[in-house]
Predict the structure.
Amino acid sequence: MTSRPSILVARAVFPEVIASLREHFEVETNGSDDTWTPAQFAERLQGKAGVLTSGAERIDTALLAACPSLRIVSNLAVGYNNFDVPAMTAAGVMGTNAPDVLTETTADFGMALLLATARRLTESEHFLRAGRWNKWGLDLFAGAEVNGSTLGILGMGRIGQAIAKRAAHGFDMPVIYHNRSRLDAATEAKLNARYVSKTELLQQADHLMLVLPYSAESHHAIGADEMAQMKPTATLINLARGGIVEENALVAALRERRIAAAGLDVFEGEPKINPDLLTVPNVVLTPHIASATLKTRRAMAQLAADNLIAYLTTGQALTPVNP
Ligand code: DGY
């Protein structure tokens, strides 16, 4: 009898997903949401052919050299900035992500965060809960208009386009966007979207939504200089990765009302939060939950598992990221 491959699941994952993996593999699981240190992670990976990661585990040259049995790393996330893809390719290790199944859910959350930020939802709720509401006021928590205002999108992949669809068709918003590549004319027309330079995007957007991948190139893509170009009435929404925004510059811009407000689902040092952000009232903060509905998280986990099963049983991954 040939022995079955062993794999590692680095996070707590739904039992039915683990059960599907156990049909093919010997499975060791973390069983909790605590991230292992790189040394603990490398130790657990000894003898494993595959691993299901959450996006927090760094896959780099040192780890690959320490884990020669590894053949595939399957990220339970669409983003894979935790992968050193060239190093993985050089080591013959397949990398996969979990795209598509989260697109619509994440776009819903983008609109939710935009609305909450522009319409000051959490700020006004805190005020009410604190017992401070004693009279109706004409400008009490007056926020920024969403319908009909211009939405700027930085990064126009699947999630950016799903947000543009909601904005254009649900909220009558003209959409401007900047991206590495331009959409075709028919898609632009369908999304009421106009391609602009990054400078025009910063200057013209009433609300700026960040949905671009994180890389060395997009690190601190929105810093003090970029915020200085934005309208003082603008809001900034980050659904992508914390490192795209220079957080200290954002705190200063929010405090000095150089931009009106921000909505952040992701943070540079998450789950640790820059303490200064917690002192600013005009920011809505959520714990990286843009794709978090049970249906979507189950689908993401199953896709991550199916990538392991497909690659280790047939040699073909479903959603590879290696070129
Ligand atoms: C993703 O899928 O990349 C989300 O940000 C969850 O990590």
User: Anything to note?
Assistant: The chain has twelve helices and twelve strands.
